[in-house]
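Inverse folding, one chain.
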């Protein structure tokens, strides 16, 4: 008996979720300042006129009124993109690696980058080379590599140092000074030198 369209039902559901969260979380000062996280992409030039944006999860265009409402009280997070629209830099405001950036790292790495490991992409996590929390490392393409769960824990537990070199090679240094370098498996084959 519901006469709302699918888009209207989805919009109402999102509003209900956000309203419930804002009224039902603990906050010491009682001001309900935890806002829902909605990720949109907008051209900075359009923000002064009629803001045009796209929902990053669905790829759908968002109405200017919704964009204006989001921009009233939000955290702006700049994402640097190349000429083809591929994300290059996500900065520090996000710890989680967005899917598009993960796919870009996966295309380069081809699986776990730890020396001697051949685990494929589906068994890996993105690791911040300069650790996000400890070293203030950004969530950027040049600061991420793929590690399987075992090696991801090992890197953190043993404080193994990683350095991504130009061209995608990974230099690994253990605490005892032992060093190895690995090449990305997902990159196109390199011509013989």
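Residues assigned per position:
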């Amino acid at each position: 008996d519901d006469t709302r369209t699918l888009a209207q039902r989805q919009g109402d559901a999102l509003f209900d979720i956000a309203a419930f969260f804002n009224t039902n979380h603990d906050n010491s000062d009682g001001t309900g300042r935890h806002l829902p996280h909605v990720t949109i992409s907008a051209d900075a030039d359009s923000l002064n006129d009629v803001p045009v944006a796209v929902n990053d999860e669905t790829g759908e265009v968002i109405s200017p009124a919704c964009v204006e409402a989001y921009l009233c009280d939000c955290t702006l997070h700049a994402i640097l993109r190349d000429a083809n629209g591929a994300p290059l830099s996500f900065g520090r405001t996000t710890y989680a690696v967005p899917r598009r950036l993960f796919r870009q790292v996966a295309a380069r790495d081809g699986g776990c980058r730890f020396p001697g490991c051949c685990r494929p992409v589906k068994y890996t996590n993105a690791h911040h080379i300069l650790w996000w929390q400890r070293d203030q490392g950004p969530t950027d393409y040049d600061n991420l590599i793929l590690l399987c769960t075992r090696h991801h824990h090992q890197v953190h537990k043993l404080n193994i140092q990683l350095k991504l070199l130009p061209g995608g090679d990974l230099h690994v240094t253990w605490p005892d000074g032992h060093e190895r370098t690995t090449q990305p498996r997902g990159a196109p084959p390199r011509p013989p030198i």
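Residues 88 and 139 are 10 Å apart (CA to CA). DSSP finds four helices and ten strands in the chain.
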